[in-house]
Amino acid sequence: MTIRWGIIGCGNVTEVKSGPALQQARGSKLVAVMRRNGELAADYARRHGVPKWTTEADEIIHDPEVDAVYVATPPGSHLEYALRVAAAGKPCYMEKPIARSAAEGEAMAAAFAAVGVPLFVAYYRRGLPRFLKARELVQNGRFGLLTHIHYRYTRPTHDHDPNHLPWRLQAEQAGGGFFMDLGSHTLDILDFLVGPLRDVVGTAVNRSPNYQVEDGVAMTFRTADGALGTAVWDFCGYGREDLLELVGKNGRLSLSTFGDEPVRLETADGIELFDLPNPAHIQQPLIQTIVDELLGQGSCASTGESALRTACVQDQVLATFYGGRHDAFWLRPESWK
């Protein structure tokens, strides 16, 4: 049996990361794509060898030859498409973050639970060898009882035209700023490595005159086992840094969220480096687990439930900045801090 996929939103993320992965995973086939611009949809289908293209999402959702739907649009349309896919009774693979807010994510998860079909979310790092190795080292206690965690992310600002902002800097489309897009990956990996984060406290600021969403975030948390954690994201700082450190009683594990440097384990016995390159199509390992689950041959680690935990953490961190996140906060920027 083969899982036949349709894509809603065949944009940049689907060119290399995911589209070819849907074609190359065992038991998987990409049969239809949708984009609002017909010329671009037709061009994508031609270049990727996809037999059908359309400009209408419902033609993907209700196509009897499409078994599962991959939604690769900005978060602003995730809830709408998720509810339509769930109503059609089809499994869904949703780009990350799950939605603009935890409230939207909860509505999505409930819709799929109600019809008994799975919702997966594209936190694809859960399938990559380097993060699987890091998880193994944590769970096997290779550096002792975990005592604290620290993450630092820095990158320079860009002079964005306030009249032509990318969707990642539009709260109506992204649910916030770069923290929603990039920060969600690190939060999900922390959930994957050490379990759900507890006692989350955070703050956020905006320092750019060109946009209103957050560009600096700091948070503290703890794990179920009592390890303490801190994390800082600076999207307008000097230089570039992306470092996650997990410190235990007997050593330290260091890795990055977005880089491909070796995972580094330091103990009294010395330093071990685990060089585990990413695959050519970076979402393929996770997509393979989705296909396997749909075929009854395995399970996927990135679900609506796990993605919702990350959405809840992001809401906790950003709630004060946005004056709450249980409503359409993107429509009231005058209330943001």
Describe what this molecule looks like in 3D:
The protein has 10 helices and 14 strands. With 337 residues, it is an alpha/beta fold. It folds into 2 domains: 3-124, NAD(P)-binding Rossmann-like Domain (Rossmann fold); 126-284 and 310-335, Dihydrodipicolinate Reductase, domain 2. The strands form 2 sheets. An 8-stranded mixed sheet has the order 8-9-10-7-11-12-13-14. Helix 2 (38-48) links the parallel strand 2 and strand 3. Helix 8 packs across helix 10. The longest helix has 19 residues, at 304-322. The protein is globular and about 55 Å long.
Q: Which features does this protein show?
A:
single chain; 337 residues; alpha/beta; Rossmann fold; Dihydrodipicolinate Reductase, domain 2; 2 domains; eight-stranded mixed beta sheet; six-stranded parallel beta sheet; 10 helices; 14 strands; globular
Tally of alpha and pi helices: 10
Strand/helix succession = EHEHEHEHEHEHEHHEEEEEEEHH
- CATH architecture type of the largest domain: 2-Layer Sandwich
**Ranges with pLDDT <50 over ≥5 residues?**
none
N→C terminal distance: 53 Å
Principal-axes shape call: globular
Number of domains: 2
> Main β-sheet, in a few words?
8 strands, mixed
The top-level CATH class of the largest domain is Alpha Beta
Helix-strand makeup class:
alpha/beta
Strand order of the largest sheet: 8-9-10-7-11-12-13-14
Q: What's the alpha carbon Rg, rounded to whole Å?
A: 20 Å
